[in-house]
Structures are given as C-alpha cells and as structure tokens.
C-alpha cells in the first residue's frame, strides 16, 4: 500500500502589488511573519539567516484545532522565489515574484502556490477527512486563506 494518494491539491492564487519586487520580497521572505499574513498560521519559527535547508517549525490552526508542522526551505532566489516543503504532508508552499507595472508604476505580480510534486501523504489526507472538514472544505479554506494572505501582503507593501 502506498503512503501517497493523489488528490487535486495543486493550488494557486496571485495578486498585483504596486510596490517593487525588493519591497515585496522583504515581506514574503520574512517567514516568521507568515502569521501576520496567513489566517491558518499562528506562528513560524526559523533560524536566521534564511538559507536553502533552513528548518522551520509552524503552528497552524482551524478554529479551536491547533497542530504543528515542520518544514525545510527548498528554494531561495532573492527578489524572485521562496519555497518550503512541509515534512508531514510533503506539500511545497511558495511565493514567486515577477516585476510588472501596476497603474503606471513599477509593481510586482506575486503568485502563491501549494504544490504536491510527491503527492500528499495518506496520513495527512486521512487527518483532513477526519478532523479538518474533509478535502473539499479544507481545500476551499486553503484557497480562501491564500487569497487573504496575498491581500494582507499587498496592503502592507502598498503602505
């Protein structure tokens, strides 16, 4: 029996921000600030300086339910991309930045992704089904959370 199940879990949200990539990068690469942006993240701890291979401890929540995850930074391209892989379910979360023009001024297109290149662990899927409302509800919550995360980053960057 495989410990991986394939579910439609590739998620993506994007936003245009009226701020240069360097300013947006400063926000999205400051991983301890994820709790400010994401409605699911309570806290993120990561050793500094941030490098590929840096380990993270995350505390997440859904209502009264709280659970920890661990992660490892798997990509770090300044002003372009930061990504980390969650150990427990093998998902890869990332922020990708692309220079653009917003309302005639230099801006940044930010794409927030959750990818599953190795599938999602069967244990994680079972826990989502049993405790977090099922795949459809949990996925909808993640999508909404990704949009909220980007909106919060945009508000901070455009201040």
UniProtKB/TrEMBL annotation:
Cited Pfam families: Polyketide_cyc2
Q: Which InterPro entries match?
A: Polyketide_cyclase/dehydratase, START-like_dom_sf
**Superkingdom of origin:** Bacteria
Q: Which SUPFAM superfamilies match?
A: Bet v1-like
Name under which the protein is recorded: SRPBCC family protein
Upper taxonomic lineage: Bacteria, Bacillati, Actinomycetota, Actinomycetes, Propionibacteriales
């Amino acid at each position: 029996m495989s410990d991986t199940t394939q579910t439609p879990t590739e998620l993506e949200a994007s936003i245009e921000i009226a701020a240069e990539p360097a300013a947006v990068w400063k926000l999205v690469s400051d991983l301890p600030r994820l709790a400010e942006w994401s409605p699911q993240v309570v806290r993120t701890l990561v050793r500094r300086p941030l490098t590929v291979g840096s380990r993270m401890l995350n505390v997440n929540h859904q209502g009264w339910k709280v659970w920890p995850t661990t992660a490892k930074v798997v990509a770090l391209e300044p002003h372009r991309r930061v990504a980390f892989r969650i150990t427990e379910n093998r998902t890869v979360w990332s922020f990708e930045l692309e220079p653009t023009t917003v309302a005639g001024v230099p801006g940044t297109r930010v794409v927030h992704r959750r990818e599953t290149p190795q599938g999602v662990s069967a244990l994680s899927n079972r826990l989502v089904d049993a405790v977090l409302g099922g795949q459809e509800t949990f996925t909808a919550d993640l999508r909404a959370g990704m949009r909220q995360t980007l909106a919060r980053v945009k508000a901070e960057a455009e201040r």
